[in-house]
Specification:
mainly alpha; Helix Hairpins; 2 domains; two-stranded antiparallel ribbon; elongated
């Protein structure tokens, strides 16, 4: 009886191991192939981004004075590392599905979804920073031509309004709710109205005064005679 009590669990464990072994071998092969492919694609992503000038993006956005690096890696290299990690993570999730670790696989799925949303949110912020810088330059140039003395201030208001809206959209992307985007849109609209009011109330009041004077002197729209 004692021998049977000891041998039965051992036989069950051995049968489980033998049943799992082919699946485990397949999962190991899958992860190994994914490691090779991920390294190749990661290097390819880094080279492509470096070729299109991705490393100079912080300078173009006005966030830095020169090329940035983290731990000796450029932004393109970091993007390649992220691509490699995501591919390996996908492979590990599939491997866990193969060997029956469904709970870990489900957790991995949620982790990948969150990571992808974070990457998309980062892209949204980057685009928002670029658009904000473009809007600032557009407003400053137009207001300087109109004779405004506060063109830089108004340009900054427009720029950071766009940036706030971009950050709100990024937060929604990672699951922080739609109310943030609604609030940010309200702030963006209010900032746009403020920029227009500042343009005519502070910086361009002389230009606006001349336009009103011309209208009063008869150069404005004429009614039917």
């Amino acid at each position: 009886m004692k021998i049977e009590a000891i041998s039965r669990p051992a036989v069950g464990a051995l049968n489980t191991l033998l049943a799992w072994d082919p699946k485990g071998l397949g999962a190991a092969v899958l992860v190994f192939l994914a490691w090779i492919v991920s390294r190749f694609l990661g290097n390819l992503v880094a080279q492509l981004l470096r070729g299109v000038g991705f490393d100079g993006l912080p300078v173009q956005l006005g966030l830095a004075q020169g090329p940035q690096s983290v731990g000796g890696r450029t932004l393109s290299d970091l993007a390649g590392v992220v691509a490699t990690a995501l591919i390996l993570l996908f492979a590990l999730i599939e491997a866990m599905e193969v060997i029956g670790l469904t709970q870990l696989a489900a957790f991995g799925d949620r982790l990948v979804t969150f990571a992808v949303n974070v990457i998309i949110a980062g892209a949204i912020v980057g685009v928002g920073l670029w658009i904000g810088a473009y809007i600032q330059g557009l407003l400053q140039e137009g207001l300087e031509r109109a004779g405004s003395r506060n063109s830089r201030l108004i340009g900054l208001v427009g720029r950071y309004a766009v940036v706030v809206f971009a950050f709100a959209m990024a937060l929604q992307q990672v699951g922080f709710g739609e109310s943030i985007v609604v609030t940010a849109f309200t702030l963006l609209f209010g900032a746009a109205c403020l920029a227009v009011a500042l343009a005519f109330g502070l910086g361009a009041r002389e230009t606006a005064g001349r336009a009103v004077q011309r209208f009063l002197e008869g150069d404005g729209p004429q009614g039917p005679r």
